[in-house]
Design goal:
This protein has a domain of about 280 residues: Distorted Sandwich (Beta-galactosidase, Chain A, domain 5), CATH 2.70.98.10. Helices cover about 15% and strands about 35% of the residues. The chain is built from 12 helices and 37 strands. β18 and β19 form a beta hairpin. The longest helix has 18 residues. It is globular.
């Protein structure tokens, strides 16, 4: 056995008996303890303690391999390597200027007790706020290429914990969240409340990651994955009686799950742990488990705010298609289809948005519905709906890009694939070269509907590889990517920083043509979906009720206006949309000022208050300045939170402009009522935040 010691520190302890071998590794601050054991059956298991409390009981590791025995038992340990790592790195963009990467690592090399042994390694990294584990398969004659039927990694939770979750589904993430005990998952999952597209059948207690957990001892945990490359997405299947969750991965069209060839490795499985909910959101472990940036040129990557031709289609004021009569998702209150008569992406309309963006300091204008094909795309499962290069007759593609650049603005090109990925693959080179030739350096892609090749899931290995292929090809053409309907992010924006943001959850759009997102929704997302990377949620709605446009409409955004402002801080993205119509912002210039002022790239971030499903307060320091911006939000309950400004530089004065709910505001009855106040603050100042039901507060804190 080879035990490697680094920096003269004893990194692990081991015990070797007649029937079992065991090892322990502690986090650098000694608060997390990882226990590993090879039992008498030759199976490697792991468990985790946090502050001497068992949070993950003995849990299994391994795989089901097609046409072979399971890779799980009958192994012996042939080598153990351990090391320590501690450095600091700087992201191209992000929530903080510097990120500390401090962990202890142990690598267990296993070989079967066989004449033709198969081999693999299990790698664990133990951070101060969590644990990452992955499998690595070295090149070997007895396991050259193989098909994974399923992964057998388990997370054996130590009780019937409270969890925040959505139903397991390998085709969509667009659900509202459930809050329940583990034992209630199967009963609640059958309701399937939320998604609008055809989805994976649910069998039993099947949930998606990131999964947020709170124990009765008030320990918070989050289970997800990092560095998802060449492998399907992981969901979890719970035994509601034992509280053990088993990893399960998406299959392909013929029922296989992962095709691997050695040498190869899996994504990291991540378990973030703390007794302070603020630490879960602040964790950088998922980012640290991804590789450093592989891009040599990042000069074109520019965080920005943008507006665009998008909301007006969701409101039914214009259409994506040229004919102006497309049947879309919104309808009258009685269920009848609303007739539409105006194409949105015209040259004239786009110029209006470009002028608005330039006037207000926005970097981009999104244009949806500019290219041919929208008349016959939704739900058709057709392969060649869009070509991504042919504009409608009323849209001057090259001229508008030139006009935008003359105003200091960029066009964000939109590529909706309608799920026909084989078609998109054929066009990507041509489409990206066209974008680059006209100076369009930002792309919003979409994958609505069933995937072609038929039978593939959005979350399968084939699609995981496609999404990354698109990001890489975009980088070759100096294009930033915002992906909708992709896999849930897993920190790959560290490795490919042109991958700016993704949807991959139930976004703001659902508020305009469905029952919408409940007030708690935005207080859960930072603990779930956003753990893996930024979200393009599209905040900033000022006209909260759809009845402002259609008197009979019942739909609305389930927030107050100032909560919409706060979302620019609490739902992180380096590319944020000013989502509402220009005229709605022009009608409230005092509130719009916050959207104009708020930054999108940061030197520092402080999570000040946090409880999943209830409330969140985040303050961020704008890149290269001494200015801070703060957002605080609540669920459906009115709330008061004590705020101190100790994060500010001592001895300096700041002008705080406070955008808050009016005293009689509420998300349902009076959502657009707000007050704006200015005060001088220092690091010694304190403030009582009063949040209305479904409300929020936004504050700009500018150095004097």
């Amino acid at each position: 056995m080879n035990l490697k010691k680094v920096y003269g520190m004893l990194l692990l302890t081991c015990s070797i008996g007649a029937f079992a071998q065991s090892f322990k590794v502690s986090s650098p601050d000694k608060q997390i303890s990882l226990a590993l054991s090879l039992n008498e059956n030759g199976a490697l298991t792991y468990g985790i303690q946090y502050k001497n409390k068992e949070v993950i009981e003995s849990s299994k590791l391994g795989f089901k391999i097609k046409d072979q025995d399971d890779l799980m038992n009958n192994f012996s340990i042939v080598k153990v390597d351990s090391s320590a790592h501690n450095d600091t790195w700087q992201p191209v963009w992000g929530e903080t200027k510097n990120i500390v990467n401090n962990y202890k690592e142990i690598i267990i090399s296993l070989a079967e007790k066989s004449d033709k042994p198969r081999m693999f390694k299990v790698i664990f990294r133990v951070f101060n706020d969590g644990v990452g584990l992955r499998y690595m398969f070295p090149e070997q004659a007895n396991l050259m290429h193989f098909i994974v039927e399923d992964e057998l990694t388990t997370f054996n939770l130590a009780g019937d914990h409270k969890i925040w979750w959505m139903p397991g589904d390998f085709d969509t993430n667009e659900y509202t969240y459930n809050t329940s005990q583990i034992s209630e998952i199967e009963k609640l999952a059958k309701k399937r409340d939320g998604a609008i597209f055809t989805a994976t059948p649910i069998k039993g207690a099947f949930v998606q990651t990131p999964l947020m957990i709170k124990t009765k001892d008030k320990v918070y945990m989050n289970i997800h994955e990092a560095a998802l490359v060449n492998y399907p997405v992981m969901d979890l299947h719970f035994d509601v009686n034992t509280y053990e969750a088993t990893a399960t991965i998406a299959s392909d069209a013929v029922g296989n799950k992962a095709y691997l060839r050695t040498p190869c490795q899996t994504p990291w499985r991540t378990i973030i742990i703390s007794d302070d909910a603020r630490d879960i959101i602040a964790s950088k472990t998922i980012l640290n488990l991804n590789e450093p940036s592989k891009l040599t040129n990042t000069s074109y990557i520019k965080p920005m705010k943008y507006c665009g031709i998008w909301l007006e289609m969701h409101l039914g004021l214009s259409t994506w298609d040229y004919s102006g009569t497309q049947a879309a998702t919104d309808a009258n209150a009685d269920g009848t289809q609303r007739t539409k008569t105006k194409h949105g992406a015209t040259t004239e309309n786009t110029k209006k948005y470009i002028d608005f963006a330039a006037k207000n300091g926005f970097g981009g204008v999104l244009v949806e519905g500019w290219n041919t094909g929208w008349e016959d795309w939704f739900g058709k499962w057709k392969e060649d709906v869009f070509d991504f290069v042919t504009p409608y007759p009323d849209y001057d593609y090259r001229g508008l890009n030139s006009y935008a650049q003359s105003k200091g603005v960029g066009i964000i090109t939109h590529h909706e694939t309608s799920g026909s990925v084989t078609n998109y693959e054929r066009y990507m080179d041509t489409a990206y070269r066209l974008m680059s030739s006209v100076g369009s350096h930002a792309l919003k892609s979409g994958y609505v509907g069933k995937i072609i090749p038929r039978g593939e899931f959005h979350d399968g290995q084939w699609m995981v590889n496609h999404y990354l292929r698109a990001i890489k090809k975009a980088s070759e053409n100096q294009i930033m990517v915002v992906a909708h309907e992709p896999v849930r992010p897993t920190g790959l924006h560290r490795t490919y920083p042109n991958f700016m943001a993704a949807e991959a959850a139930r976004g703001q759009e659902f508020n305009f043509w469905s029952e919408g997102n409940p007030p708690e929704h935005e207080t859960i997302l930072p603990f779930t979906r956003l753990m893996g990377g930024p979200m393009d949620y599209t905040p900033g709605i000022f006209k909260i009720k759809k009845s402002s446009y259609y008197p009979d409409a019942k739909e609305q955004v389930h927030t107050t206006l100032t909560k919409q402002l706060a979302l620019y801080l609490t739902l992180y993205s380096p590319i944020q949309m000013a989502t509402d119509l220009p005229e709605n912002y022009e009608a409230k210039p005092d509130a719009f000022q916050f959207i104009k002022d708020v930054a999108v790239d940061w030197d520092d971030t402080k999570v000040l208050h946090a409880e999943p499903g209830e409330y969140l307060t985040i303050a961020r320091k704008a890149k290269g300045t001494n200015n801070w911006f703060l957002g605080s939000i609540t669920d459906e309950n009115a709330r008061q939170l004590a705020l101190d400004f100790s994060f500010l530089d001592k001895g300096k004065k700041f002008t705080a402009t406070i955008y808050r709910d009016a005293d009689d505001a509420s998300w349902d009855k009076n959502p657009e009522a707000y007050k704006i106040e200015k005060i001088t603050v220092t690091a010694k100042s304190k403030l009582n935040l009063k949040l209305a039901p479904g409300g929020g507060t936004a504050i700009s804190i500018i150095a004097q």
